[in-house]
Structure formats: structure tokens, C-alpha cells
Amino acid sequence: DIQQSWDWQSTDKRIQKRILNKGWWNGSRPTEGSPCIVKIDTSDYEDVNIPAVYRMPSTDQFKLTVGEGETEFERILDRLLTTMDTFEECLVEYKIDEGIYNVKIKLIQHGAGTPSYILDPVKKFNKVLHCKERGVLLYKEGRILDAFYRFKRAAQLLIFLDRDQEQYQPVYLIVCNNLAQCQLQLGNYEHALALCAKVLDKEPTNVKCLLRRATALESLKDFEKALVEYKKVLQLESNNKQALERLPYVKKQVDEMYARYNAAVKRMFNFN
Q: Reduced to 3 states, what is the DSSP secondary structure of residue 220?
């Protein structure tokens, strides 16, 4: 019965497992960087309503390196595998969006991992570049959330490296700018603004970032501030297509707002 108590639950309660077979302790569990082979069995829990992007077919040889998951299901496995012993088999319930899904997972084998925090600076920076490039490719494929998590990982690694150092700061700002674009696409406009602020604090004439801030402000209906940002863009690039297209609409919204305000004030003080 799936409703029985669980042996482990993630802190955000999105993932929980009940151990079916304990497996055996061989001195370690998977950590970041551990190559793993996993058996996935969905045969008892097939659900045609599971979106294709979340569906995981049954397989005896699913290979995954912990920390390198690039789909929502793989990121769930990333978290789950660090709790498992070799040959452990468990029933897993996981939540994605509004859906709750079940699957059987068995850890067949795993190798040694190398957590990022103990890597030397060169290897750590190479990993940053790898995450950034993977994020770009995923974004181009339209996988915005997956790209976001790759860029986020790159940003986290750069914090370990001291992101403000001269050799790292340009990459950190690119990653933040890319994260801002992902947040725009995901509808998280306040988060996008916070990321844009980090970039523009160091690069106040970054046109891409100014446009992203303008877009976020416009989406939040803060038309006055959006107008300021679009004008900044046109001062830097007078032929910028996006700014030229959006400026008339935003200016119209500002003009109408002031017209409504003036009309309200006039009514307020009109005693006739």
C-alpha cells in the first residue's frame, strides 16, 4: 500500500521512498560526480496522464552521474541516489508540478564521486564553463527550466571561486544575465529584476540586460520604469528593434496613466 509510512522524505516533501530491499553497505553511497547505473521499473504504475517530459520508461541500465541531471526526473534521481545503498530497491513517490507519480528504483552500482567544493580552481572553472554551455544548448532546445538549473549550477560554482575576481566576473555576469532570461520565460519577473540588478551594477550599459529589465518591468505593469529602460537602450543602440517596437506601447500606457490621474485630481477638486 503506497499510503504506508515512508523510510525517507526530502526536506521539501517532493520525494519520498519506502525501502523494499535494503541492499548492502559497501562503505559509501553515491555523492556528487558518482557515475550510477539504475534499474527503473514503472510497470506497476503506468499512467497515461503523465506528461511525456516526466515519463520514465522501464529500463535495467539507466546511467546517470549524480549532479548532472538535465530533466526534472533526473534531478529527482540526483537527490534520491545519495540516500541509497548498492542493490537497494525502493518505491519512490515524487511530485512534479501538480502531479504525483510512483516508480520503483534499484541502484545496481555506483562509482566514486568528486564533490565540486574539493575540486581545484581550474577543474572547478572548467565545470562552470560546461554547465554554462549546456544551459545555452538546453535553452536553444526550448527546455527553459532545464537550462535554468544548468545556469544556476554554474553560478553556484562561481561563488566557490570568488565570482568577483577578474578572471571569473565576466562569466558570472553572463550566467546571471542568462538566468534573468530564463526567469523571464518562466514568468518570475521579480527574480529576473534581481538578477538584472547584479549585472547592471557592474555593466550599466549591457543592452541585453537593460532589455530584460525593461521586459520584466513591463510585465509587472511598472510602465514608467520600463519606459526609462527602453530609452536607455535606444541611447546606446538607436536602431534596437525590440526597444523601438515596445516604446510606443509603453509610452501610451504611461500617458494614459497620467491622464487618469489628472482626471481624478480634477474631479476631486471640482466643487461645481
A: coil
